[in-house]
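New to this. Please check both lines:
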Amino acid sequence: MAQPNPTISVLVPVYKAEATLDDCVRSILAQSWPDFELLLIDDESPDGCPALCDAWAKRDPRIRALHPPKAGPGPSGARNAGLDAARGTWITMVDSDDTVAPDLLETLYRAAETSGADLVICNSCRRLPDGTLQPHPEEQRFGADTLLEEEAFWNAFNTPWINQFTGTAHRLYAAKLFEGVRYPVGMVHEDYYILPDLIARCGKVQCLAYTGYYVLQHEGSITATARREVRLAMTRGDIHRAGYFLSRGWYDRAEGALTDAAEFLYRNKRAYDLRKPGHRAEFSGVKEELCRTYEELAARKGARSLKLRAAALRAGLPVFHAYRALLAARRG
């Protein structure tokens, strides 16, 4: 029997996953921790996935198949529909082409209970189509169980651990973290964007040396359009993170995030093909948001050097880049 209020809700957005969904679901149903519900959220997949979701829901009372209207490109709408329907006190997310270790839920939940953390993250691992597992490089993995408070988390964010910190999977969230927080629809790297909103609500983050999540590696590469979207999404994420740092009074962190965003835009400007009106408007909108946030930082901190950098940024990305290079040469 499905529990009306399970301990854990497992959310799986499903889109064009006919070849992988069964393996994904089987790995979740094999969990050593029995008290969970599995939400298969059909994101209007144009293949046989909707029927697969319904078939799985009929086979196991812990499974619910959801068919919300597609809210926009990407999985954000499906994730949000899952969050709205989830009954668990804790939430984890699994991508429909990935698989998990049989003790994943139990390991994450017991770590949360022991540490008092609102977010528990474990290592992920690459899985090749033949089933071979490829761990991430040692410096990118949690080598020992580590408990981080808010500031310590952001100190660790600027290390190779960032590859484990970002993403939506291989982690267990206290459901309360999502009160008033949802994924932005139509944005790639939506997880990167809302990370500050979740960390702001966390008392502690528990990082585990345990590896229990297996990411299927697909052949092929993303398209040029996707690369443009990824770059702009990462920049939006940096600007959003800077705004969060400003709200905490962490001006140096805010400046670092904004400088990263500005230099990233400068280095990748050619990738946006600004001859296209849509690209040009999108790029200009992100740049304007960057300028406003940098000017807010300069006004709050009141430092003349920051006001000069904000003015240089407003004058243009090449001016900002040249000004920073000049300052670095003077310091050298």
